[in-house]
Amino acid sequence: MYNMSFMKYFFLLIIYCVLFITMYNNVTDTISFGFITGIQSLYLVLFIFQLFKDSNVSSRALTIEFPKTKFSNEEIIYIPLFIVILSGLVMQLMSSIYITTLANKLKDKYGRMKLERNSQWNLNMYKWMFIVATFSLMGLTYSYCNDFNGGSSISGSYRTLMLILFLCSIMFSVINVVNSHSLSKIIFSLTD
Fold it and tell me: What does pTM read for this prediction?
């Protein structure tokens, strides 16, 4: 029997793909940012409920083994998947709330998202980093749902891929929070 726990996240990924396309259209960008915030909060709630139902949370970790050399002892590092996924989801939700607030305020003021050149560049950086971070989090969620059930070992190349996904999801999520927070400060400079 197949493990179907990732199926709900796959449907979210399809919705994300549609929203990512509409995020780059000047007519639908404000609506897209609002829907992304809603879907991001749904993704967070679904993952939290899955954590509550999961009795095997502690064993779902990326294990990195360092062999013993004459200069160091043998070390094993465990990186729990749920901590990385949960922190990435929360940071992505925070950044999407900031951008949705900015988009709605600019839409009310100008009828569209009108930004100066540097702010527009920051918004474009936010968009592509949000997409990369979301796909990284989806990859980690897939691994969380499917790869740690049978007790089989994970290959070295797959561990490297998971480590890259870890780094992408955390780095881009942190950068997005900082970037979206600085963009949301534009709201205070608007005059009525």
Answer: 0.87
